[in-house]
Write a structure and sequence with these properties.
GO terms for molecular function: ABC-type sulfate transporter activity; ATP binding; ATP hydrolysis activity. One of its GO terms (biological process) is quaternary ammonium group transport. Keywords: ATP-binding, Hydrolase, Nucleotide-binding, Sulfate transport, Translocase, Transport. The protein is α+β, with helices and mostly antiparallel strands. It is about 25% helix and about 35% strand. The chain has helices at about 40-50, 90-100, 110-125, 140-150, 170-185, 195-205, 220-225, 230-240, 325-330, and strands spanning about 5-10, 15-25, 30-35, 55-60, 65, 75-80, 155-160, 190-195, 205-210, 215-220, 240-245, 245-250, 250-255, 255-260, 270-275, 280-285, 290-300, 305-310, 320-325, 335-340, 345-350, 355-360, 370-375, 375-380. The strands form five sheets. The protein has a six-stranded mixed sheet with strand order 6-7-8-3-9-10, sandwiched between helices. A five-stranded antiparallel sheet has the order 11-15-21-22-24, covered by helices on one side. The chain is globular, with a radius of gyration of 25 Å. The structure holds adenosine-5'-triphosphate. Adenosine-5'-triphosphate binds near residues 35 and 39.
Length: about 375
C-alpha cells in the first residue's frame, strides 16, 4: 500500500514552503525529490520524519494516519547531509544507539545488539571499523555509518536529505551506485532529497521535481528527461533552452520554418514556449543543410564537445553538446560557421494563467517543412 501524501501545505509567515503537495510512494520504492534550493524538499522530509507539522493535508501509511504518530514511533530512519554521528562514540556505539535508547521492555539484549551492529557494518562494508571514532573516518565512511545507524531501528521508511551533499565529486559518484545496490538488497521504501539532477536520474525509480513548494512533475527518470511536463522541468532536468518559436494562425513559426498545427484549441495557447536540449542541436550531416550557426566557443570535456552557438539570427547563445565523433564529422565546417539540425524540440502551450495545457515533442524535418506539429498531450493541472 505504501505512503499516501495528500494536499500538504506548510506556511512560514506569508511564505508557502509547501503548496498543495500530493504524492503516492509504493512499498519498497526509491523516490528522489529533486528541486533547486528553497523549493520545499526538506520541508516535505521534515514533516514525514515528524520534525515538523503541516498546516493542512494528510499522510497515510498503509491507510493509517502517520502524522498522528510521535516522531519516535513512525519507524523512520533519517540521514542528513552533515553527519550527525556522535563524536565521542565509536562506530559500533553510534550504530547501536537507536537500539540502546529503547525502553527496556523492547530493548534487545546486548548480544543481539552486537550481532545487529556487526551485520549492518558488514552491509555498509565497514566491518573492520567497529572501534574507530568518527574523526578517524573519511566523509564517505561517515555517511555509511550514518546509514547503518538509521537502519538499526529497522525503519519502514528511509529519509535521506542530501546524504552525499558534503562529499567530494568522485566519492559522491561511487556512493550513488553503492546506495542503489544497497537499496535493491534491502527493499526499504526510500525518499531521497537532492538538488543534483544526475544523482536523482541515475538512482531513483521515480523522480519528483519540485519548484517553489509545488510538484511540477512525477515520473520515471527517462520520462521527466524526455517528456518534461513544464518549461521549468525542461530547463532544470534537461537543460532545455528557449527558442524564438511562436504560434501565428494555424502555424508554429521557428527559424523561418512554418509547421502546421493540428488539433490545437487557440484558447489553450495564450503563450507558447519552444525548448531544445543541448544534445538535440546536432551538426548537419549534409554540408549546407539545416540552420546556419556561428561557433562562439568550444570546449572538450570528458569525451564530449560542448559548444556555444548563435543559431540563425537568434540573439541568445545556445549550448550544444556532441560526441567527439559527431564533432569530427562536421569539423570540415569553414572557420566558425556550421550548419545544425534541431533533432527534437518541445513545445509547451500555456493558458492565460501561465499553466501548461498542452505539450508536443516535435522532430523537425528539414527537407520537408509541411509536417504537422503534434500529437499534443494534454497536461493535467
Ligand atoms: N523554519 C522556517 N522558518 C521560515 N522559513 C522557512 C523555515 N524552514 C524553511 N523555510 C523556507 O521554506 C523554503 C523551503 O525550504 P526547504 O528547506 O524545504 O527547501 P529545500 O528545497 O530543501 O532547499 P535546500 O536544497 O536549500 O535545502 C525556503 O525558502 C526556506 O527559507
Amino acid at each position: 500500500m505504501g505512503i499516501e501524501i495528500s494536499r500538504l501545505r506548510r506556511r512560514f509567515g506569508t511564505f508557502l514552503a509547501l503548496d498543495d503537495v500530493s504524492l503516492s510512494i509504493g512499498d519498497g520504492e526509491f523516490v528522489a525529490v529533486l528541486g533547486p534550493s528553497g523549493s520545499g524538499k526538506s520541508s516535505l522530509l521534515r514533516i514525514l520524519a515528524g520534525l515538523d507539522q503541516p498546516d493542512a493535508g494528510s499522510v497515510l501509511r498503509d491507510g493509517r494516519d502517520l502524522l498522528a504518530l510521535d516522531a519516535r514511533r513512525r519507524g523512520v530512519g533519517l540521514v542528513f547531509q552533515h553527519y550527525a554521528l556522535f563524536p565521542h562514540m565509536t562506530v559500533a556505539q553510534n550504530v547501536a544507539f537507536g537500539l540502546r535508547v529503547r525502553p527496556w521492555r523492547v530493548r534487545p539484549k546486548a548480544q543481539a545488539i552486537k550481532a545487529t551492529v556487526e551485520d549492518l557494518l558488514r552491509r555498509v562494508e565497514l566491518e573492520g571499523f567497529v572501534d574507530r571514532y568518527p574523526s578517524q573516518l573519511s566523509g564517505g565512511q561517515r555517511q555509511r555509518v550514518a546509514l547503518a545507524r538509521a537502519l538499526a531501528i529497522e525503519p519502514r521508511l528511509l529519509l535521506l536529505d542530501e546524504p552525499f551533499g558534503a562529499l567530494d565529486a568522485q566519492v559522491r559518484v561511487n556512493l550513488r551506485g553503492w546506495l542503489r545496490e544497497f537499496h535493491r538488497s534491502l527493499g526499504i521504501t526510500t525518499l531521497f532529497v537532492t538538488h543534483d539532477q544526475d544523482e536523482a536520474l541515475e538512482m531513483a525509480d521515480r523522480v519528483v521535481v519540485m519548484n517553489r513548494g509545488r510538484i511540477e512533475q512525477i515520473g520515471a527518470p527517462e520520462q521527466v528527461y524526455r517528456q518534461p511536463a513544464t518549461p521549468f522541468v525542461s530547463r532544470f532536468i534537461a537543460r532545455g533552452q528557449r527558442l524564438p518559436g511562436e504560434v501565428r494562425g494555424q502555424h508554429l513559426h521557428l527559424f523561418g520554418h512554418a509547421w502546421r498545427i493540428e488539433n490545437f484549441a487557440a484558447a489553450d495557447a495564450h503563450e507558447v514556449a519552444v525548448h531544445v536540449r543541448p544534445e538535440d542541436i546536432v551538426p548537419a550531416p549534409v554540408p549546407g543543410d539545416g540552420l546556419t550557426a556561428q561557433l562562439l566557443n568550444l570546449r572538450h570535456v570528458a569525451g564530449s564537445v560542448r559548444a556555444s552557438l548563435r543559431v540563425e539570427s537568434w540573439d541568445e547563445p545556445l549550448e550544444a553538446e556532441w560526441s567527439e565523433r559527431d564533432w569530427a564529422r562536421c569539423a570540415s565546417a569553414a572557420d566558425d560557421r556550421l550548419h545544425v539540425h534541431l533533432q527534437a524540440v518541445t513545445v509547451f502551450a500555456m493558458d492565460r494563467d501561465g499553466r501548461v495545457r498542452l505539450r508536443s515533442i516535435v522532430y523537425p524535418p528539414y527537407a520537408n517543412s509541411s509536417i504537422a506539429v503534434g500529437p499534443w498531450r494534454r497536461i493535467e493541472a
